[in-house]
Amino acid sequence: MRKVFLFLIFFLFIYCTPRRTTLGQEDARLKLRESVYILNSINNIEGKGVIDFENRKFRLRSKFTFDIRADSLRLWIKHPLYGTEKQINLLKIRKLLNEIPKKIIINASYKSRTKKFVLQGFLEGKPVEILIEDGHLSNFSYQDTIITLANYSKLGDIIFPMHVYGKIKDIKFEIKFTEIRRFKDD
Question: What is the separation of C-alpha 18 from the centre of its chain, rounded to a whole number of angstroms?
Fold first, then answer.
């Protein structure tokens, strides 16, 4: 009976503990570079969606159209009450994504039991955590910014996140893309 009990403890210890496969620095950097490349290769796309903003002072839901080209990512957000439109160029996000694999100092990188790659480290002296799932950037946490990209959908030869949500400073946001299509660049 004692042997059975010891075997059960050994079995539980070996098979029920969370497994993590540690990655080397270069392997982790390569996975990160590949996932960022997938996001950066998204261009010649346009479409529509719904965006929600929320903080302590206001809550706003608005429809938007977007246009992604090789050199820019533009959102045209229309205010639901006043009808005013605002154009936002998100080129800084693309530049930041390109700089991450070069500038990140990786402290820990491992593959979790759920097949997600987790990278923890520092970017410009501040802690950063990145999750990569199925080769796609899934979650990015840096300073007071948390961004999650979900529901990747295949559109021809590219893969596009249909749902983006998170928090930047004290503003929560949720973006749902309702329509996306490719266009030919002239």
Answer: 24
Q: Tens digit of pLDDT for each residue in 150-184?
A: 988 887 777 888 898 998 888 888 989 888 888 76
Tell me how long the chain is: 186
Q: Which whole number is the average pLDDT over 99-122?
A: 85
Helix (H, G, I), strand (E, B) or coil at 137: strand
Q: Do 98 and 40 meet the contact criterion of CB atoms below 8 Å apart?
A: yes
Contact 33, 26 (CB under 8 A): no
Q: Distances in Å between the alpha carbon of 69 and those of 46, 91, 108, 182?
A: 9, 10, 34, 10
DSSP string, 5-66: HHHHHHHHHHHHSPP-EE--HHHHHHHHHHHHHHHHT--SEEEEEEEEEE-SS-EEEEEEEE
What confidence category does residue 10 fall into, taking pLDDT thresholds of 50, 70 and 90? low
- Cα separation of 132 and 134, whole Å? 7
Task: Determine how many CB atoms are found less than 10 A away from the CB of residue 97.
Answer: 17
Domain boundaries, the chain: 17-43+91-181
